[in-house]
Give the backbone structure.
Amino acid sequence: MATIGDVARVAGVSRSTASYALSGKRSISDEVRQRVMAAVGELGYTPNAGARALATSQTMVIGLLAQFLPDEFAPAMLQYILGISDSARELGYDVLLVTEEDGTRALKRITDSRMVDGVVLLNVAEDDERLPILRTASQPGALVGLPGDCTGVDVFDLDFEEAGRVMVETLHRLGHRELVLVSQPEHVVERGGAYVWRLQNAATEQAALRGMVLHTAFGAAQQPEVGRQLHALLDAHPRATGLLLNNEAAAAALPSVLTERGLRAPQDLSVIGRYSDAFARTFSLPYSSIESAPDRLGRMAVRQLVDRIERKARAGPHVVRFISPELVDRGSTAAPRS
Amino acid sequence: MATIGDVARVAGVSRSTASYALSGKRSISDEVRQRVMAAVGELGYTPNAGARALATSQTMVIGLLAQFLPDEFAPAMLQYILGISDSARELGYDVLLVTEEDGTRALKRITDSRMVDGVVLLNVAEDDERLPILRTASQPGALVGLPGDCTGVDVFDLDFEEAGRVMVETLHRLGHRELVLVSQPEHVVERGGAYVWRLQNAATEQAALRGMVLHTAFGAAQQPEVGRQLHALLDAHPRATGLLLNNEAAAAALPSVLTERGLRAPQDLSVIGRYSDAFARTFSLPYSSIESAPDRLGRMAVRQLVDRIERKARAGPHVVRFISPELVDRGSTAAPRS
DNA sequence: CCCCACCGTCGAACCGGTTCGACGCACGGC
DNA sequence: GCCGTGCGTCGAACCGGTTCGACGGTGGGG
């Protein structure tokens, strides 16, 4: 493999001159630059990433910590990963994907060994164990998901409170008076997924404000169970005319459940979910939904992270940004049956 | 950040002695080793990955090239990624995930710059453009998916021919005489996804051998279309008693289609799919299926790759390994209605 | 005509590890 | 008592880049 020394020799210049010709950090005569470029082409030279990292203390790699927890609804995760990977590349960075179960150890490893210039954490919990490690690391970090304590990191998340309000308010305006909300499984909440509460509490408040009845329940993340639960909920609340789903698995299960019950949306039941448009398209889910925008969140996190890496504004003010929920209308809401 | 020089100073030894104490590559007195370890603990020393890579020409990172093509059925990809990431970590490697659209350029970049010790290619096409690049690279590569030319790489794939035969033979034994096979979308085939042909041709031959009728069709990868196609196919072949699905989206769509037609599996129609058990569980697909085993394939690829990296047996004989299809019985096959 | 500034290039040091050869010392065998 | 062996340690070189300071040459201004 050719080194910059080889390039220099072939071009008949010193190593430093070759380096400057390539980086453009000092002025170089046109003639020498051309000779260097020719040598690069001839030898097929590519700089050695390790050597460059050592010299510059920049790896041009960002770490992506994704935890795949059992009973998690996996398909959604892929969209975050894709958004992050693609936008990182656009900004000149590669992505080190870490799915190690012990996220704290993994984070410590990749930051301490300086394999990465910064880190994106997915699936951040209310009291995430990885945060203390991240704060002591010398690289910046961006989170997708809102923890209890945001100091020292940039945070991006959907505005789940507003999402809850929008869901309720949309159906209220159409004349609904009794709703059911199906959330993520309870163990997701226990693990610190505060967003479940954020949406549910806001929805409950908004319903109270409007004098509506809102029944809440945790749904399973797997299919036979969540389908049965939906049946049970519809049985238990026969007067409910609207169904809110903060649970992808429940949304995926709903078509069969409705068919089995001989119900149609929106004629017999208005439905609003909370998932990404890509998810809706893949499974042809015909329900209006709050767009969870994983790709957008991922892009925002990466953009901010790279900005912080490159502007060295490590100490600059940190940002907590919520994207406001957008309701994608797929025609599954209407005035309730009178 | 502490360097090995700091460790050496605190321990009162030379840098090389500290290095040997940590690597164990030369004998070191217990007393010195303890002093070095104490210094490591005190300073929180972690070796710098770039420096180590430069010195040893080993990065302990493997590249994972995954192409996310439009109209691909994405959820399946995640399982490959997970299997690969997890098994890599178990073997001491991290994973650089590359989803760049231009796979050849990405591959060239990460191998030439020596960011990785080896590479796993997903979604390998019959005539994959990335293969020539991989062959000229100095790192070994493992593929998931069978290309036309396997020289210089290790290849792992499901035995799609056998899968096709097993599907047909299973229904033949039960007494079926007319089947429909729904494959992946045609553009997947055009892009070089030869596995579609492998399964379909073998199924066709086996059917001919048994004197059965086999209708074949390409199904869409998205939902409203594939559901309509399934309806059309069942309309077009009313005497068919068995349905074979080499198309995840079709499998996901089938429950609603059957419900809409008032059919049940296996009473009215026997069904065999080809997807992973994890996929079946997530979407509660009640159909027997050929296990596509993405995690197992990923693990095999990584194991072989790491073996080749570490045994430096770059020139050793390359392997093309097919895993034999296992039919997971979920009770969706039975003798046809007489 | 001289001096200064600037442009283009070079040599050397440095980043933080690993590894080779050498060296001092203790110990055992004759 | 001497020599050879082997163990534990050290110094120095090396991996392949980047970057700083210096230096020679040229051109312009006074």
